[in-house]
Amino acid sequence: MSDLGKNKNDRFAMFDRMSTVELEEILRQDSEIPSGEESDIDAILYIMEVIARREKENPTGRFCDVHTAWESFKRDYSFSADDGYSIYDDGITLDVIENKNAASVKDPTHVRRTRFRSFGRIASIAAVIVLVIALGTATAYAAGFDLWGFIAEWTRETFSFTSSAEPLPQVNQSSENGERKSFSSLEEAVSYYDISEPLVPAWIPKGYSLISVEAAEGLGNNNLIASYRSESEELIISIAEIPNGHTSVHEKDGGKVTVHKAGNTEHYIMTNEGRLKVVWTRSNFECAINGKISIEEAQKMIDSIYGG
Amino acid sequence: MDKTQEEFIKQLYIDMFYPLSAYAQSALGDKLLAEEAVQDTFRIACAKVDVLCASPNPEGWLVNTLKYVIQNTKRSRARLNSIVVTAMTYDRDVLGTCTDEIDPELIYASIVGEDNFKLLKRVALDGYSMKEAAYEQGISVETCKKRIQRTKKKIIELFEKNNK
Fold it and tell me: Final residue of a domain: which of A143, A163, A178?
């Protein structure tokens, strides 16, 4: 092995000793580094290779098979990208990507300095992750919820949960064909679907009246949506079953995300376009409250779910 | 793309699919969305094969491209989710009905097409990848993408028209 290769292996040896979960957290945090800030590509590639090698040695089925994926690529994805857009076309064109990639090729001096700073950040993230995992896991299990069930993550523009847990059994689904049902209350709806988890606020802000409660029975999941209305505003409460861990990505603005804990569950409060949004997961449900209400009203709604 | 470039892309695909999948899976938390992000990255790589071939670090180029694809995916899916949730709180005065017994989906289905609205909901609310949603309706991924774009645009136009 050349000296250069040996130095790289020495520099990254600590990643070989980390668990896959820890390495994935580093990659996840790297994926959220804003445009314009660089990460240590060599370190990231090394981590990616470690995870990939472990998967090849002990397959868990977490990744699609490469040969199947290649056939799918030729069949399903090789339509022209000449229009300049990704499959998801909001804001990113090929030119933007090209400019970012071009900007990442620097002179050797700048590369060395940047990589030192970037690697320092990755090393710090790794150290913090190990500490949080060591402390957090025991505490989380003692508190009654699974830290590795759903992990909340957010950027300036989006909020979502990621799941590493095994899928939970689906609640009763009367129809397989995506039917819709109406109910007179959200309580009636959760009772109909035998949902035993506390998910429904018992308190609604003054001035709001219930307009409708609809259940959409999808193939593999059910969605409940309750709509309330005041003189000028709407309030929506949604309960989505997520047996396969398919959570939604929620749009948010640049305001901070606050956490309100109740019923051994963390509820994330954020804003988007002048409206308040509360999002949380419990068991295999993802719930949300969306409306022009105050933080105090949101917290009161949350507490009322658990009898507070 | 010439033959040499095709072979280059294919070999890069074979070598980098699992590492890129590891990155995408970590960021998106979903196997099929991760696969789609990697596929989208290579689709872009094919469109920019000259640049990729000339890059001193093709693997790094792919990682950077994947990162932007992932950020774009999250942002776009969040926007679609917002649009559909807002659409579900329909305004009777806006949509021109005076009855209490109304299904908002029927209203939007009549405006944008039942299949199109279902496609949008699958991706926006049910967490489907474009490929999953496309397969369910027996259409190509490219068609799925275009139909979702058109449906989104029509619904936004409806909101804007009624906010005036």
Answer: A143
Q: How many Cβ contacts (< 8 angstroms) between chains A and B?
A: 237
**ipTM computed for the complex:** 0.88
Give CA–CA dist B82/A272, Å, rounded.
9
pLDDT above 90 (res A102): no
Query: What is the per-residue pLDDT for A219?
Result: 55
Residue for token digits 């505003």? A233
Task: Give the Cα separation of B145 and B132 in Å (integer).
Answer: 12
CATH number at residue A266: 3.30.200.100
B131/A contact by beta carbon, under 8 A: yes
When the pLDDT of each residue in chain B is averaged and rounded to a whole number, the result is: 85
Contacting B residues, span 53-72, partner chain A, CB-CB under 8 Å? 55-57, 59-61, 63-65, 67-72
Q: How far is CA A70 from CA A73, A204, A237, B18, B134, in A?
A: 5, 51, 41, 12, 18
Shared domain check, A297 and A170? yes
Per-residue pLDDT tens for B107-127?
Answer: 777 888 889 988 998 898 888
Q: Nearest residue on chain B to A161, judged by CA atoms?
A: B29
